[in-house]
Automatic annotation (TrEMBL), chain A:
Family matches, as PANTHER family: BLL7171 PROTEIN, BLL7171 PROTEIN-RELATED
Protein name (database record): YciI family protein
Family matches, as InterPro entries: YCII
Family annotation (Pfam families): YCII (PF03795)
Lineage top rank: taxon: Bacteria
Automatic annotation (TrEMBL), chain B:
Presence of keyword Metal-binding: no
Domain of life: Bacteria
Domain (RNA polymerase sigma factor 70 region 4 type) ranges: 116-166
Protein source organism: Micromonospora luteifusca
Protein name: RNA polymerase sigma factor (Sigma-70 family)
Listed PANTHER family: BLL6612 PROTEIN (PTHR47756:SF2), BLL6612 PROTEIN-RELATED (PTHR47756)
Family note: Belongs to the sigma-70 factor family. ECF subfamily.
Limits of the DUF6596 domain: 184-284
Amino acid sequence: MLLIWNRPGFTEELTEQDRTALFGEVDEIMKELTETGELVDGQALANPSQTLTVRQIDGSTEIVDGPFMESKEQFAGYLTVECDSPQRAAEIAARWPDVRYGGAMEVRPVMEQAGTEM
Amino acid sequence: MTEDRTVEDLLRTLAPQVLGLLVRRHGQFDRCEDAVQEALLAAATQWPGQGVPDNPRAWLLTVATRRLTDEWRSESARRDREVAVALREPAYVGVAPPADAEPAVADADDTLTLLFLCCHPALTGSAQVALTLRAVGGLSTAQIARAHLVPEATMSQRIRRAKQRIEAAGARFTMPEPAERDERLRSVLRVLYLIFNEGYTASSGPDLHRAELTGEAIRLARILRGLLPDDGEVAGLLALMLLTDAHRAARLGPDGELVPLAEQDRTRWDAAAIAEGIALITEALTWSPPGPYQLQAAIAAVHAEASTAAETDWRQIVALYRLLARIAPNPMITLNQSVAVAMVDGPRAGLALLTPLIADERTAGHHRLAAVRAHLLELAGDAEAAREAYLAAARGTTSLPEQRYLELKAGRLATQR
């Protein structure tokens, strides 16, 4: 799974030209991954201001506004890809344009229900 | 139900034969494959109700050919010139025997040629697997997608791209040259084993669709063995699959947890599959120089012959691993070898074998290495080091049942202290 981390709203600061180019790149990568059959799933998440966080404080469950992490970068969306190697997944992540604008892509394997005989 | 089963079996047997004939006549692998899938679909909906036609193969061939010509005709309205090229009989058709002259021989060759084509080196492993299941196995895209737990659209694109790559690579529907044949056969065996393992590692609980893959891999390996009865590795792979699949009922506990080989209830092993696998590998080893699949099958046979884990002939297994490590050196083989060596010469001897793997960057962080080290350290009585290795292995695996098993082992060592 490719987790997309970026600074919320960073696209608002770009010139119209850069913004159009960025969305074009994303469309391009998605189209390519669909064609190769590597794309399994993917979603973009709404702005962190829409977030509720549920946690226990002093033994009682509280629901608070705002994201879990108070960092500058926020979890912005994900892609699930199925590729032949972890290197290939990292290669896809490296092309994601958010990385150029200070964002980061986290590449994590997904746990499976399967296992080998030990 | 039985009727449907028979129809499905029949269709899956005929699929590669019909596809082979079409591609040999017209070229254009990707279009012929689409046409055959449509014909299979039509048969699967019509035959159970209306009965199987007298000559099912001719029926499928007719329907698929009609689909092809329909497509060409509708295109000809737009692109006359291209159709002329499409309909041109490829030069090599004249060389091949007429389809009806020697059907048995032609069908057999076609199925083998198809297998070689689907395992074309221009394709990635996952594409080879998907294409083999569809073109040779006659599975629908939906079935293949379900077995791989991906959306149908994903699998459909993967198969489409694979067919285009084959066309682009200029693959002809002919047997590869003798020099390349042997290499291609190794790819075919690898792909069949991949299909088997995809099914076997997941042959539990909610993933019944994946369990069908083991059956399909065995079926295809049987076909391959029928086509190439003189290849010892083909026999070895089939034997290995049968002997492994025989554990299926015993390898998972009541809660879906993995039961290691040593702790499995052997009365639940499939005796018929074991008998067949042992006979197959024993016979193959008498006339063929042993290859990696034969040796792995031979090891599985030694395990199967012991009525309890303790009675296993570990010396023989060590000897077989030594041979295997010489002809096909591979860190995963060294891992398994170390367990066998530990059973004969003690856990420290097994651990010594692992030392180079810890320094090898390909294997250093691999959870299987940590899991085997943990097991051997536990046997050696070093509970603390074993516990750490089990936890490292649990962090490294992407398999939930494995993770649970490894954490359980670590937890038990902690309570012993």
